[in-house]
Every structure is written in structure tokens, then in C-alpha cells.
Write a structure and sequence with these properties.
With about 500 residues, the protein is an alpha/beta fold. It has one domain: 3-Layer(aba) Sandwich (Rossmann fold). Helices cover about 30% and strands about 15% of the residues. Strands 1, 2, 3, 4, 5, 6, 7, 8, 9, 12, 13, 14 and 15 form a 13-stranded mixed β-sheet that branches. A two-stranded parallel ribbon has the order 10-11. The longest helix is centred in the C-terminal third of the chain and has 27 residues.
């Protein structure tokens, strides 16, 4: 179900517009228009593989903008508990395209730019979940940006191939930065207001939002930010990133020269090596943004605490049971493995687990495990973002998503990604939405979607059936908890939060 039947809006009329990039042809659906597959960069192939993106040149004539561009190179996988693959669009190295949904009414309208998640190895703008029709229906221009993931977007090759490739570990971040610059230069032609851009993302997309909050080159390209189940601590040092690159090169195998191996091997061979690397990497998320001292000067959390984003209103939160989505199918009584952790060494995690067992003596081992891993990767990092941003003087609003399905493998659990159908008012993506959801969930979807829309419009989240949303401060820790409706709680699960003091 998509609000007002937007998923089944009938046959669209074609519409053409002029932009600084060139004239393009999209679809007119009465209440909104959509333009897909717009190139914002030259294809990052051949001599541009592992290099910073280069802006696309303006085109002549009328460019069809009717189909999504290819998804970035990635494996075909499904989320546990959901039918069908996450991405069904063709995949290709030539993946630097974006899409624009815009209200049919004249602007200028506020703009939301969305960064998809997927552990920095998956995801695409073509996922049905990210249809911007509901935002355009409600007066917001929605832009989704494709960017390189996995080895092609996050491999730091400066140590292996020399200074010309220094900083390649942040090429995905550079893709997103170039996409934002394209939005700044072009969005007025679509009825958008370049001075009212909100940058938003979920999971790895949320972490990349945090990296852009800490990137000096992104200053002024967006005025507000949304981070859903992300974090601002999951970044590599140069040394750690170069070690990932060394392991990746080893997984590729022998070649006449290292440069030949990395720059000319077919993309499918790079993907095979990437999967070998991930399988052997001792911790979660080998592909991360890199603190290179140039594009990204410091760990994003440190930059946020120092005030890098103090002028940017921030909406941040996570789902109550985020990491249960990734729980081993049969964890038994095994200790939490390093591969389940993104921030902490297993010995430190074991010490925190002992604190949890003392605080929650009646909790089952499997439930305790879910609490621990969710807190380590999503909840406490989200709290730390809110604390840091509020302490710097930034307007900060925190939420927690507690709504759970009443049947299926995640019955009673608010797992990772489960807030997305509510935020987007869109229950049409079987890869991210359990079958049968829609009618019962629609009231909360209407509320949450309206809340996100209001934040994009004004920098303050609100909806007609929500209580006033108090900004987050360390003294009160006001948090909007979404379950059947929305309620403000001060320091929800505070007894658990304090177990992480001095740890993360």
C-alpha cells in the first residue's frame, strides 16, 4: 500500500523540463513527477576505476529519464525473513545516477536527499522502498543518489598504487558529495529549493550521513540531517583501510603487476575477491569511510562533538531490536563472535555482557545477545551522536522505533530496516516489508511520514497526533518512542544505557 494509491497511479504522461545539465523527459503522475537515471558523474570505469568521480558533462538534445540507472556492483542477497532479493535491477560499475521525484505544484519546495543503506556493500536507488512519490505528494522534492559500494567505493589504494590513488577509500563519500553538488546546482529546475536540503540515510546510509556532517567540503550543501540506525564511530584509520586493501589484493590472486590486477580485472572478479575478503575479515563492516586527514579529517563523532554540524538540525534514532535481523540462525550459547561486532573487541564486549547478566538476571541468553549487539552497533552510537550534537549547541531530536509485526519471523521484534515502510509510507517492497502489512500499520505510517516531512520542511519533527517533541539534552534525554502511536519518554532504557558508560 502506498498512500493515495500512488503505487498504481495508472499510465503516466511524459513531461520535459530544462535543467543546467540539459533537457530531460520524465513521467507526470498528476500529483508528482519523476525523473530517473540522471547521470551526475561520468561512468567510473576504465581509467576512472578507483578514482574520484568526475562530473557529468551537460548533454545535447532531450535525454530520457524514464528508467533507473544500474545498481552498483554487489552480490544478489535477501534480508533474512523477507522474500525476494534486496536488489533486482541490473548491476554495473556504471552506477552514478540519481532520481528526482517532485511535486506537480510549482515550488520552491524543500528537498530530501536519501542515501541507501546496505553495510556499504549492498543497496540501490531502484529498491521499491525508496520511491519518493509519497514525499513528492506531500510537498517535498525527493532525490535518491546512487554511489559505489564495496571494494569499488571503499578500497584505500594509496599504499599499494601510490599517491595518485591516495584517498580512494573515500570515493563513495566523494560520489555522494558530487551528487549533493549536482542537487545544489540543478534542483531549482525541478521546483526544489537548494537552500532547504535535508540529507537523510539509514544504516550504512546513516553512517555516511554522519561522515558528510564531518566533511568540510559538504558544508553548506544541506541544512538538516536525518540518521536512522546509523552511527558516527564506524570509520577506518588509514592503516586499517590499507590492511583491508592488502587483503583484497591478496584475494584477487596473481597478476603481472598489482596495478594490472586492480585496474583491468573484470568487475565480477573484483566482486568475488570482495566476498572472500568479507568472509575472512575478523570484524563486521570491512568497508567504511576512512579518516584520511583530507576529505574526512577526524572520526565523525569527534567532529560532531566539536561543533562541525552545530548549525544543522538533526533527527536521529534506531530500532529497538535492530541487530536481531543479523543474528546467527542458531546462536546457541556461543559467545558473541568478533564478526558480529563493529566497535568493540570481544574481551571488552564480554565485560559488558557480564554487566548485562547482572542487571538482567532473568533474561534469556538469546534475548540478552540481541540487546547487546543492537546496543553496540546502533543504539549507543545513536545516543552518542545525539549527546555530541546537543552538547555542541545543535538542535537534536531523538526517536526509537518499537513497533513490531504481529506474525512472521520477526513477531514482537522491531528489527533493522523495519521503520522504513513507515517513514516512506510505502508497504510495496516485499524485500523490506513483511507480507500482509499495510492496513493495520497505516495510522502509524501516516504519522511517521508526516513527521519526517515536517522535519524536512522546518527542521523540527512534528505531526498533528504527536505530543510536542522536546529537543534532546543530556539532562533529560527526551526521546519519541514510536509503537502504536508516538510518546515522549525521558531516557528510555536508561538502566541499560548506563552500562555503556566509559565503554563506547
Amino acid at each position: 500500500m502506498l498512500g493515495l494509491g500512488l503505487a498504481n497511479a495508472g499510465v503516466a504522461e511524459e513531461v520535459e523540463i530544462d535543467t543546467p545539465s540539459g533537457r530531460m523527459r520524465g513521467e507526470d503522475h498528476d500529483v508528482y513527477r519523476v525523473f530517473r537515471g540522471i547521470p551526475y558523474a561520468q561512468p567510473p570505469i576504465g581509467p576512472l576505476r578507483f578514482r574520484p568521480p568526475v562530473a557529468a558533462a551537460p548533454w545535447q538534445g532531450v535525454r530520457p529519464a524514464l528508467q533507473f540507472g544500474p545498481a552498483p556492483i554487489q552480490p544478489v542477497v535477501s534480508l533474512r525473513g523477507y522474500p525476494g532479493p534486496l536488489v533486482t535491477q541490473a548491476i554495473d560499475e556504471d552506477c552514478l545516477y540519481l532520481n528526482v521525484w517532485t511535486p506537480a505544484a510549482s515550488g520552491p519546495h524543500p528537498v530530501m536527499v536519501w542515501i541507501y543503506g546496505g553495510s556499504n556493500v549492498l543497496g540501490a536507488t531502484s529498491q521499491p522502498q525508496y520511491s519518493g512519490a509519497s514525499f513528492a505528494r506531500d510537498g517535498v522534492v525527493c532525490v535518491t543518489i546512487g554511489y559505489r559500494v564495496g571494494a569499488l567505493g571503499f578500497t584505500e589504494l594509496g599504499g599499494l598504487l601510490g599517491p595518485a590513488f591516495a584517498g580512494s577509500g573515500n570515493n563513495a563519500l566523494r560520489d555522494l558529495l558530487l551528487g549533493l553538488q549536482w542537487v545544489h546546482a540543478n534542483i531549482a529546475a525541478f521546483g526544489g529549493d537548494p537552500a532547504r536540503v535535508t540529507l537523510a540515510g539509514e544504516s550504512a546510509g546513516g553512517k555516511n550521513v554522519c561522515s558528510l556532517l564531518a566533511t568540510p567540503a559538504a558544508a553548506g550543501l544541506f541544512r538538516a540531517a536525518i540518521v536512522e540506525s546509523g552511527g558516527a564511530q564506524t570509520a577506518h584509520t588509514i592503516a586499517a583501510a590499507e590492511e583491508v586493501a592488502t587483503q583484497f589484493a591478496a584475494a584477487l590472486g596473481k597478476a603481472d603487476t598489482l596495478a594490472e590486477m586492480l585496474l583491468t580485472r573484470p568487475a565480477h572478479e573484483l566482486l568475488e575477491a570482495e566476498l572472500k575478503l568479507i568472509a575472512g575479515y575478523p570484524y563486521a563492516f570491512p568497508y567504511r569511510c576512512v579518516v584520511d586527514g583530507v576529505l574526512l579529517p577526524e572520526i565523525p563523532l569527534q567532529a560532531i562533538r566539536a561543533g562541525a554540524a552545530a548549525r544543522v538540525p538533526l533527527l536521529v534514532g534506531n530500532n529497538r531490536n535492530d541487530s536481531v535481523l543479523f543474528r546467527p540462525a542458531d546462536p546457541g550459547h556461543r559467545a558473541i563472535a568478533p564478526r558480529e561486532l563493529a566497535q568493540l573487541d570481544p574481551a571488552v564486549m564480554a565485560a559488558v555482557a557480564a554487566r548485562y547478566r547482572e542487571r538482567f538476571p532473568q533474561m534469556s541468553d538469546i534475548d540478552l545477545r540481541g540487546k547487546l549487539v543492537t546496543a553496540e552497533e546502533y543504539w549507543i552510537p545513536s545516543v552518542r551522536i545525539a549527546e555530541a550534537h546537543a552538547a555542541s549547541g545543535g538542535r537534536t531530536f531523538m526517536y526509537r522505533f518499537d513497533r513490531t509485526p504481529t506474525r512472521g519471523p520477526w513477531e514482537g521484534l522491531a528489527v533493522h530496516t523495519s521503520e522504513l515502510p513507515f517513514v516512506w509510507d510505502n508497504f510495496d517492497d516485499p524485500a523490506m516489508c513483511p507480507a500482509g502489512m499495510g492496513a493495520r500499520e497505516q495510522p502509524l505510517a501516516t504519522t511517521m511520514h508526516a513527521t519526517w516531512v515536517r522535519f524536512v520542511q522546518t527542521g523540527t519533527p512534528a505531526a498533528t497526533d504527536l505530543p510536542d517533541w522536546t529537543p534532546y539534552e543530556a539532562s533529560r534525554r527526551a526521546t519519541m518512542v514510536f509503537d502504536e502511536t508516538g510518546h515522549i519518554h525521558e531516557d528510555p532504557s536508561g538502566d541499560e544505557r548506563t552500562l555503556w558508560d566509559g565503554v563506547l
